[in-house]
Amino acid sequence: MTSQPVLSKPIESMNSFDIARQQLAIVADKLNLNHDVHEMLKHPKRELTVNFPVSMENGTVKMFTGYRVHHNLTRGPAKGGIRFHPETSLDEVRALAFWMTVKCAVVNIPFGGAKGGVVCDPAVLTRPELEDLTRRYTTEIAIMLGPDEDIPAPDVGTNGQIMAWIMDTYSMLKGHTVPAVVTGKPLAIGGSEGRIEATGRGVVTVAREALQAAGAKISGSSVAVQGFGNVGSVAALLFHRAGAKVVAVSDVQGAVLNKRGLDIDALLAYSKRTGSLVGFPESEPMPADALLTLPVDVLVPAALQNQITAQNAAAVRARFVIEGANGPTTPQADIILRGNDVTVVPDVVANAGGVTVSYFEWVQGLQSFFWTEAEVNAKLEQIMVRAFAQVQEAAKEHRCDLRTAAYIVGVGRVAEAISARGIYP
Ligand code: NAD
Q: How large is the C-alpha radius of gyration of the chain?
């Protein structure tokens, strides 16, 4: 068992960054991490907060707040998504940047960790307002961006169109087109085949490996997916196509259930047409929270952080939790799930398919030479399978859970890079 460092406050009242630091402390202990390296990783390298005006369509000017955080750049340029969400905060962005440092190291791609966010609700902004907000935020944080410096990508509330505006704004500031400054772009401006599906595809690949290791298989398994955005909808579709029975999915408006399995192709078409899952004809409605405690083989949280907590973890009946979202399980919930023999495949492995294909997109952009979707998917498969195997190996060697093992692999690689480079000056 991992020894638990003394906490200054109860875990469940911690914010995401407290939780990230707690996870780091657990692995530092286990790895016997050098004290100075631990101190470095506890602190993001640089953080920028920007307050900026946007002209709204009703003639008023509204102020917005945004952030960009670089956590650690020892292994390469900063990489991490941009989140548009009303409740995002500097601490949330710090935690997400820290997780990106670990994630990039776990899949062994040459990036450091970063994240960005704007406190806003994109659903209530008009398209011109969203474009103006994106362009102004990009201009404000442009001092941190660049293909060799910091390469953003989509996250909650952002998408390929927003990446296109970021790429265009940065290119206008530079005076020439710079495709490699952002990933998750549309194909028309240098995006990669397979990037939209990459995170969901990685989730299903890792689920397959985890089930296989336990003598089970995806085909015939029952699955519940929380969140039906970029990650959740693709994961649900690929589980469905791999022969799993996806019995429940949810979005911010509600959840739908069909014990015989939902037709995810039809559900995707329905949600595209109506903007919601709710009311899907071949399903019954259910309370969104109930999805997390359904008796399924595989549970995929693919919405936001802190969803499986000390309050509901004991009621989780899935055998496997595959973390599509970042930070969906609190440390207290982790302990409860472990006690109940639930295998949790942590975010830093399970959802690393997105940043892996973002890496491929960046490489393709720098070379101006583009790969087929089959090539992208084959390379993604290789990296995800290797990362899961290395994490599983570390779990066996250190006799620990997969999250601690993933941190041992990821933080271990970052520590090795810090030690090789030394501390300047
Ligand atoms: P998204 O904005 O495309 O979708 C989010 C989904 O979650 C939406 O369907 C929304 O309705 C739903 N949702 C929000 N609150 C909910 C709630 N309380 N209950 C149920 N559903 C809820 O975002 P995304 O890109 O799919 O990201 C989802 C998660 O995956 C985030 O944690 C993100 O950081 C993580 N992630 C995303 C990527 C990526 O490539 N997009 C990569 C790695 C990790």
A: 21
Smallest CA-to-CA distance from 224 within 328, 280, 281, 298 is with 298
* Residue in 83, 92, 252 to alter for ligand 1 test, most ligand atoms within 8 A of Cβ: 252
Domain 198-350 in the same topology as domain 44-178: yes
Question: What Cα–Cα distance (Å) separates residue 266 from each residue in 225, 258, 317?
Answer: 16, 13, 27
Mutate to test the pocket of ligand 1, among 79, 115, 156, 197 (most ligand atoms within 8 A of CB): 156
Distance in angstroms (rounded) separating the CA atoms of residues 102 and 414: 8
State how far the Cα of 35 lies from the Cα of 370, in Å rounded to an integer.
43
In angstroms, the CA 87 to CA 348 distance is 22
CA-wise closest residue to 358 among 66, 170, 78, 169: 78
What CATH code is assigned to 198-350?
3.40.50.720
Class of domain 44-178: alpha beta
Ligand 1 atom closest to Cα of 83?
34
pTM assigned to the model: 0.96
- Neighbouring CB atoms inside 10 A of 109's CB total 21
- Asked if 353 and 330 touch (Cβ cutoff 8 Å), the reply is no
Confidence category of residue 4, pLDDT binned at 50, 70, 90: very low
Instruction: Identify the helix (H) or strand (E) that includes residue 61.
Output: strand 61-72
Q: Is 89 left (phi over 0), alpha (psi -120 to 50) or beta?
A: beta
Task: Specify the ligand 1 atom closest to the Cα of 96.
Answer: 34
Question: What DSSP designation does 15 have?
Answer: -
- Integer Cα distance of 114 and 93 in angstroms: 8
Could you tell me the residue ranges of all domains in the chain? 44-178, 198-350
| Centre of ligand 1 from the C-alpha of residue 372, in Å | 27
Q: What is the largest CA-CA distance in the chain?
A: 65
- pLDDT tens by residue, 27-79: 999 999 999 999 999 999 999 999 999 999 999 999 999 999 999 999 999 99
